[in-house]
Each structure stands twice: as C-alpha cells, then as structure tokens.
Design brief:
- The chain contains 20 helices and 28 strands.
- It is an alpha+beta fold and about 650 residues long.
- Among the domains are: about 335-490, Orthogonal Bundle (Isoleucyl-tRNA Synthetase, Domain 1), CATH 1.10.730.10; about 545-625, OB fold (Dihydrolipoamide Acetyltransferase, E2P).
- A six-stranded parallel beta sheet has the order 3-2-1-11-12-7, with helices on both faces. It has a five-stranded antiparallel beta sheet with strand order 22-21-20-23-26.
- Helix 5 packs antiparallel against helix 6 and helix 11 (about 305-315) packs across helix 12 (about 315-325).
- It is flat and about 80 Å long.
- Bound molecules: ligand ME8.
- Ligand ME8 binds near residues 10, 11, 24 and 257.
- The site of ligand ME8 has 21 residues, from strand 1, helix 1, helix 7 and strand 11.
C-alpha cells in the first residue's frame, strides 16, 4: 500500500484560530481524505507551535503561565478542527514531552557534528514578528514587516551553518524541479538562495519560554529548529520508536502559507541535509486569504472572520467548499461575506441541492404517492439510450480521472469546477428530458426510469468526488439516493450502472438552504468582524461628542418607508427632528414620552427627504435596542 504523509504548518496559539488557519488545514484535510479514499496509507499531521517570546509576553499580559495560556488556546484550535471535520491522524504540540526531548537531541547531534556553533547575535528585534533585523533593513527605525517599534539586542547565541548549504540546495532544486510549488514561489526561492545565505541564529537567552539547550541551559532553542522538526519528531525521530518515521518519512507534501515557504524550502532542507535525512518531496506555498481592504487576514492586523460563526450559520461543508472553490490554491484571494453567500446560493443550494431534491421528489412521486418520504423505487426498464444519455454517462465516468489529476496538482478549485460542470449538465439534461411530463404515464415508465437513473448515477459519482471536500454532504446525497457505501468507493467513481434499480429513495431536508442575501449581510457584519486591534481615542476626542438626554415629544412613521421613524426630540432647549431606522422595532406610541440619548452635535443630514438633526443611540445586535434614560432630564449631558 502506498503511503502518503501530508502536514499543515503548526500554528502559533497566540490568539484565536482564524479563517486563514482553516484555509491550510481544510486543504490538507481534503488532500488526506482524497488519498485515503484512493486506498493510500495516510498520515495527516497538524499541531501548534507553542514556544517563543510572543507567547511568553501574551501569557504575562493575561496573568497566566505560558503553558496555561497555550493550553487554553490549543483547546479552541482542537474544537475548531472538530467543527470543521478535520481528520488529522496526529496533533503535535511543541510543548509535548517527546517533542522537547527530540528537539534537544537534534540540537545536540547538530552541535556534535559541527553544524551548530556558538557566536554573538546583535540586531534590532521585533517581538511580535519574533525577528531580528540589521539596521539597514529597518524602515524609519521600525520593523520592516509590521511597522512596530524594535529594540536593540545583543546576546550570545548558537548558529546553524546555513551558509554552507547554498550550492547543495540549488542543486537539489535543479534535480527536483517539482520540489517547490507553485512555480512562482520556486523562482523566488532560487533568487533568495543565489543571493547568498547567512548562518542562522538558532538559540536565544533573552527569554525562557522554549526548549532548553540541555548542554547549555541559559539558551532556549529558537523557534525554527523547534518548529520545523515537528514534522519528524511527530513520527518518532529522536525517540526509541522509529516505526512511523521509517514508514512515513519523507513527507509527500508540506502545505504552508506563502510567507513561510522560505523556512520550509531553504532552512528545513538544510537542517535535514545536516542530519543526513531525506528531504520532503514537496513544499506547496498557497496564497493568502485577503479580507476586504486587501490585507492578509491575520491575528496581528485584527481582520478576523470567525470560522466557528460561519460554520454554525452555514454548515461546515459550505465553508470547506467555499475555501477550496473560490480561490485557486496558489493565488491570493479575497474573502467576502457576499462571495460566500453567493457560492452557497448558486453552487450549493441551486445547482447541487436542487438537482438532488427535484430528482428525489420526482422518483417518489413517479413511483407512488406525493407524501412518501422513503420509498423503494423501481428504475428497471428496457430503454434504448439516446445521444443525450450517452453524453451524460461519458462525461460522468470520465470525470474521475480529470478530477484526480487536478487534485494531485492541488488544483482544488479546478477539480470542483469540473464536478459542477457535470452538475450543470445533469440539470440541463433533466430540463430537456422533462420527466415530470410523463411520470404518471404507464407507457412511458421505462423512459422515466431511465432519465432518473442517469441522474442518480451521476449524483452517486458526484458524491464520491466531492467527499474529500464535503464529507457530510457526500453521505447525505448517498443516503437520499439509496447508494450503499460499497458502490461509493473511489474505484467505483468511474464505473457506471452500479446503483440498484430498486434503490430506496429517501426524501430528506434540503442539503443546502438558500440564504436571503441582504438580510444575511446585515446580520453578518455585526457578528463576524472582530477587531481586536482597537483604535483608541483620547478623552479629548470623546468629549467632542455632545451626548445629551433628549425626550421624544413626537413620532411618526415616514410615508413609503417600512424602516424609518421621524422623531421630534426636546433637547432641553428646543425641539429638533431626528430620523432613525427603527420602525421595525418600535411603534411611535412606544417612544413618545421616553428619554433617549442624543448625539446633539452630529452634522445635520437629509435622510428620506427629511432634515435630521442628530442621532439617537441604540445597541445594534440581533435586535436594535434604544438606550433609554428615563430617570434623567432633557438636556442633561452624558459623559
Ligand atoms: O507561521 N491566508 O504560525 P501561524 C491563508 N508557527 N493562510 C493563512 C492566513 C491567511 N490570511 N493566515 C494564516 C506560523 N494562514 C509558524 C509555522 S511551521 C513549522 C511553523 C496560515 O500561526 C498559513 O498556512 O502564524 C500560514 O503559513 C500559517 O497559517 C501561519 O500560521
């Protein structure tokens, strides 16, 4: 049996996992499922990279010990992977004892071989990026990557002799042209290595939260040796039991984001060369999910879309599908709520969901009774295939090979679009054949059965092909069309005619529901965008806002508008008109006589043809709730 070893990066548990982390992990999961389905012996590794100064600092801020701090966040990662159906075989934490011991061993081996030596590290250090920079690399005295303050540090440190590997690495690239993908990243790496490599600092004395160098305990192993070696320590390297290591190493592919390709394609091969170990077969550097304004979605910029919220609202498979379909894997792409909802509505609810539900309904109606929700149908019948039938069948059985080819090249979006092309053909086929016109005609039973059978068989094949990406949906389709698991194997994805004629067809709830886009977008804005990078304002800024108690003395619904109320508000000195979009929440009668908070110095604006002089405050969650201050007097300042 062929083995297949796939990994994700190990993530920093320095904040909550976000959709960017899900992107790599869902891709690796789909690759693992795809290979398992093809009968390979798969090892799928993911985990967390728990050491380093940033985590130490974050823990201190929270008043916790680093281990306590990471334990709390790792639990959230694990929960997210459960929600997303991530089928990892092993989850490694760099704080795991076995990993710590193995890292120490690796460090010692490299030291004993003369690959690591002691020197002095000086430079400008950026804590959030955990990186040193020479003076010339700073931008206006700040970190060139994140723009934050840096501090000068000088410390004794161990260095790995990376510089001596330049030529060997370039030679390896030449001998293994597929080692780095996509091609553009390979070219970047070649340029980088050609420009000359410097020895790499691999220990620190300035913080304690790391794997101690056992023969020099003032030092902790610096992040990249600790982190990169996870791919082999997880298999037992550095411990007694090397069974998994012998079986699975070298990795078939390390899936990583493009910003860490350099570590995986240069430092990691050099470490492995120094250890005399084989190199991984491939480093795939995927693109970034960008968020609205073109920024990378990452913890430090605060642009975070909460994946748990998305999965709860739309279901795991919709999110998984979106991540792999929307953006070609190697490229950057923008996440937007709108594009997610459109994918759900068009691809999932309309194209796939509707194909399934209308075919199942037709079968049940055609074979007896409109209200039955589980029925044995009989699709047997003598019927000569038409050209349209043949075209559909040929497309369905040839899809598997094309899909496999795309998937092997990590072209998930292309693989899925081919499946959706078959789905679209099935819908057209059904429209043209119009079986509802003759479903009750006994003389046309064979024709009717034939049309339905062809769509059901296509759906069986579709369900197999989508299963690495949408495992739950695949099962739901198979249940509804009565396809037993033995005919839903990879091998059977290119075989036609396996569905039993007397299948048990089951009407179940729709696999995907259409979403009211406008309403959903309004709701989503408020729940998915967390901004943990608050922009603070000074008390002086705040005091510029004239907040006062105002009493509602008049109120009416604006003509031709369902949402808008026109309020007359006494602000302690005079009456003023204010327009507010709260008509669906409050009636005028509920408001007259109540005290609200008024932003009295807001620039007047014309809304719905009415001059609005101010704004009233409300909380805007699921419901809009005005803030009432009935115990105060009109005109009182709020501060
Ligand atoms: O770099 N779009 O951990 P990390 C796509 N611990 N993918 C994204 C993304 C985005 N906007 N944001 C993050 C580390 N990712 C190291 C790795 S490996 C030995 C050590 C994904 O928590 C992407 O895979 O910063 C990226 O490489 C990884 O998360 C970075 O995770």
């Amino acid at each position: 049996m062929k083995k297949f070893y796939v990994t994700t990066p190990i993530y920093y548990p320095s904040g909550e996992a976000h959709l960017g982390h899900c992107y790599s992990t869902v891709a690796a999961d789909a690759i693992a499922r795809f290979n398992r389905m093809r009968g390979h012996d798969v090892m799928f590794l993911t985990g967390t990279d728990e050491h380093g100064q940033k985590i130490e600092t974050n823990a201190i801020k929270e008043g916790m010990k680093p281990k306590e701090y990471v334990d709390k966040i790792v639990e959230k990662f694990l929960n997210l992977w459960k929600i997303l159906g991530i089928s990892y075989d092993k989850f490694i934490r760099t704080t795991d004892d076995y990993h710590v011991r193995s890292v120490q061993k690796v460090f010692k081996i490299l030291y004993d071989k003369g690959e690591i030596y002691k020197g002095k590290y000086e430079g400008w250090y950026c804590v959030p990026c955990e990186s040193f920079f020479s003076h010339t690399r700073l931008v206006s005295g700040k970190c060139p990557d994140c723009g934050r303050d840096v501090k000068f540090q000088s410390e004794e440190a161990y260095f790995f002799k990376l510089s001596k590997y330049s030529e060997r690495i370039l030679q390896f690239y030449r001998n293994n042209p597929d080692f780095i993908e996509p091609e553009s990243r390979k070219n970047e790496m070649i340029k980088f290595v050609e420009s000359g490599l410097e020895d790499l600092c691999v220990s620190r004395t300035s913080f304690k939260w790391g794997v101690p160098v056992d023969f020099d305990p003032d030092h902790v192993v610096y992040v990249w040796i600790d982190a990169l070696t996870n791919y082999i320590t997880a298999l037992g390297f550095g411990s007694e039991n090397l069974v998994s290591f012998d079986k699975f190493w070298p990795a078939d592919v390390h899936i990583v984001g493009k910003e860490i390709v350099r570590f995986h394609a240069i430092i990691w091969p050099a470490i492995l060369m120094a250890l005399d170990l084989p190199l991984p077969k491939k480093i795939y550097g995927h693109g970034w999910l960008l968020f609205g304004d073109g920024n990378k979605m990452s913890k430090s910029r605060g642009n975070v879309v909460d994946p748990v919220v998305l999965c709860k609202r739309y279901g795991t498979d919709a999110v998984r599908y979106f991540l792999l379909r929307e953006i070609p894997f190697g490229a950057d792409g923008t996440f937007s709520n709108l594009s997610l909802i459109e994918r759900i509505n068009f691809d999932l609810a309309n194209d796939l969901g509707n194909l399934l539900s209308r075919t199942v309904s037709l079968a049940i109606k055609g074979f007896g009774g409109s209200d039955a929700d589980c029925r044995e149908i009989n699709l047997a019948g003598e019927y000569e295939s038409s050209q349209e039938d043949e075209r559909l069948i040929q497309k369905a059985i040839s899809l598997c090979k094309l899909y496999e080819n795309d998937f092997e090249n990590f072209e998930f979006s292309s693989a899925l679009s081919k499946v959706w092309s078959l789905i679209s053909d099935c819908n057209k086929y059904l429209d043209n054949a119009a079986p509802w016109k003759y479903m009750t005609d006994e003389n046309e039973k064979a024709k009717f059965s034939n049309v339905l059978y062809n769509v059901f068989e296509s759906l069986r094949i579709i369900s197999i092909l989508i299963s690495p990406v949408m495992p739950e949906t695949a099962i739901k389709i198979q249940e509804q069309i009565g396809a037993k698991s033995e005919i839903c194997t990879w091998q059977n994805a290119s075989n036609w005619g396996l569905l039993a004629f007397n299948s048990k067809i089951k009407k179940m709830e729709a696999i995907f529901l259409r979403i009211d886009c406008e309403k959903e977008l309004d709701d989503l804005e408020s729940v998915t965008q967390k901004n943990d990078n608050m922009d603070f304002i000074s008390i002086k800024d705040f005091s510029k806002i004239d907040l006062r108690v105002g009493r509602v003395v008049g109120c009416e619904v604006v003509k031709n508008s369902k949402k808008i109320l026109k309020l007359t508000i006494f602000d302690g000195e005079c009456d003023r008109e204010v327009v507010s979009g709260i008509a669906q929440r409050y009636t005028p009668e509920e408001l007259i006589g109540r005290n609200v908070i008024l932003v009295a110095n807001l620039k007047p604006a014309k809304l719905c043809g009415i001059n609005s002089n101010g704004m009233i405050l409300a909380s805007s969650g699921k419901n809009v709730n005005l803030i009432f201050t009935d115990l105060s007097e009109p005109g009182e300042r709020i501060s």
